[in-house]
Amino acid sequence: MDISPQTSNDISFDDFKTQILNDYKIAVLSRTCSLMGRKEVLTGKAKFGIFGDGKELPQLAMARSFKDGDFRSGYYRDQTFMMALGLLTPKDLFHALYATTDIAMEPMSAGRQMGGHYVTYSLNEDGSWRDLTKQKNSSADISCTAGQMPRLLGLAQASKMYRHLKNIDSSKFSNNGDEVAWGTIGNASTSEGMFLETINAGGVLQVPMVISIWDDGYGISVPAEYHATKEDISEMLEGFRRTEEKQGYEMIKVKGWDYTALMHAYENASDIAREEHVPVIIHVTELTQPQGHSSSGSHERYKSQERLEWEKNNDCNKRFREWILETGITSEEELKNIEKNISKEVRSAKKEAWSEYLTIHKEQKKVLVRLLNEVSAKSPNKNFINKIKNDLIAIEEPLKKDLAVSSRKALRYLLGEESTAKDALVRWTDDFLNTTQPKYSTNLYSEASNSATNISEIKPIYGQHPEKVDGRIILRDNFDKLFEKYPNALVFGEDTGAIGDVNQGLEGLQKKYGKLRIADTGIRETTIVGQGTGMALRGLRPIAEIQYLDYIYYALATLTDDVACLRYRTFGKQKVPLIIRTRGHRLEGIWHSGSPMGSLIHSLRGMYILSPRNMTQAAGFYNTLLKSDEPAVIIESLNGYRLKEEKPLNLGEFCTPIGRVETLRKGSDITLVSYGSTLRIVLQAAEELKEVGIDAEVVDAQTLLPFDINHDTLESVKKTNRLLVIDEDVPGGCAAYILNEIIEKQGAYKYLDSAPQTLTAKAHRPAYGTDGDYFSKPNLEDIFERVYAILHESNPEEYPELR
Ligand SMILES: Cc1ncc(C[n+]2csc(CCOP(=O)(O)OP(=O)(O)O)c2C)c(N)n1
Ligand SMILES: [Mg+2]
User: With 327 labelled, which of 78, 464, 550, 659 sits at a CA distance of 20 to 30 A?
Assistant: First the structure.
């Protein structure tokens, strides 16, 4: 038997033994955490647990080949890997189970994520990048099966960019593109489209990623025969294997309990990916689930007695142990000793974590009980308040919720009373809520000084006789300036490279900036977004193009599950400054009409949704976003590329502010709010309304997320006292959101003389052609008549019935 775990360095037997015993210790440490962790759920201390048991050995091998600067994009089984690199302690693991909200104690997400989701910090306290080449990196896990795959592609592609791009400052991100992106995925999750799309894209792009498939034969209760053609992922993926003539993947298959084979496999994979930038798939077979899938069920329900027996005998830790004894590396006694010590270590880590988690709650409880005591003393509702107090006292391990419920309910019994004790309880409650809520709600957007909404407006400057050009020329020439100014900016998508996008907003730029920076991709929206996500996580400034807005749905899962919530779920420890460029609005046809804005607004909180009315405004948004570091979607108006606009002199410099509306037409009778291409129709309608004596004010929302942070629309409504929001989304979509912002958030209801309304497209998808558009989306006559009807209702004499 080959017992050398190293393939390239000769080491002494003592070092060799130390290495193996260290690995054994981590394997046992991780397993013990899994076993004790599950019990914490079963005894009710934690809500849910999912652990890495049965997958320890290959993760030790992966950890050994993982170098500074490398990135992981994995899933919930990888605790052993994280522990082996010193990135996760048993105490961290227990704090995550309990959902401790102190980031110093629960470093993965401050209690926001379920346990089993791993993260390293990419940012300094001020939001600037750390030197990622000097640390081992894990991108932030998500729960969705295969959701880590698109991002993995981009993480790997960043190495390729850094290796080949000139004049780029890679000091904090890369050493000549030598970094490998390591992906992990469960066997069953390879059925997901995201996995298959990523595999294909990785083979085309030839990027340094090593994908490990942890194959335990099951996806929860469902066995392999339902997941993979031929019941074997390697066989299924065989066509991706590289050959002498053609590029593809290096494919490795290895048994998950075979320590030396695993060490060899991972070192090989690492070398191939790192040096040659060839992607590698490692199919790790014969893994097990000693405790079943998660704390939610038991695997005895769905595995045969035979299978359970097999899993017991082939448990990777058990076989590792047997191998250590067989090869005489150490004695049974020493192993038992290790196991005993580790058991003690984990038990005390668990106890400490639980006590730390509870300490603050218990202290708060003490204060609250005292305050309840004081308010009850003189209250006519003494008995009720005492009941609340006694119920709270009875809760030995109080949650924040228990405290909040007790104090808030008690205050109801104090209605109408006045006392210093009550004042103290009110203060405590306000204070408690004000300090607790941010633990759950901060870091949705950047809170740093360069957040996108803090970037100041710089107006376009025009010469005395500005040239009038097609909108796409303004975009193109502005992009030219940006690619010159930001060597780490890149753009890619379908038809983006050679022809410079379908509307030629990037015409000629590939010639100037090269095929890497201005790139064509396959037709695969999810991994286009994945490329952008991964590259943005490694310091590049990707602009990922989705050819038409309607096709963003293919990528919406990655945008909502990964991009939009990245800053939130990492408690601000990672950022993903990705710009999605797309085009929509006012086209014709079910899949080319482009305005599902409500869908975006509701699923992409954490991103900016920008809807410029013309290409100058759009260019200004790109300029603003590149000065900041937050993710956004920019929807260019598809029918605006060939409309004439005046060309500014300060291309690449002027900045459209984010979160600010713009009044395009002053008026006194009604405020019309709209955005994008529809604005042109609204403005035309406003002109025609003038002919019947109605003077409409027209406000361009411009940025939908966030909408009007200065509340300028309110000022308009104060003047006109009437409000109509017009868009081409479905009823109850974006226009309803804007209405809610103006009426509820800005408080405009106080100033209204007429009922506020929305005018939207029909509920169905927009039909094709000029007439399809006219009868599906709000048209000029619809707008005219709706405004007229509002005025008619308030003054029928001046505005007699129209029809
Ligand atoms: C998109 C999505 N669908 C379903 C689930 C529920 N789910 C969680 S884990 C899992 C099975 C995954 O099995 P596998 O990929 O083999 O990983 P294993 O847990 O066996 O390591 C399922 C169906 C999910 N998290 N995400
Ligand atoms: Mg599985």
Answer: 78
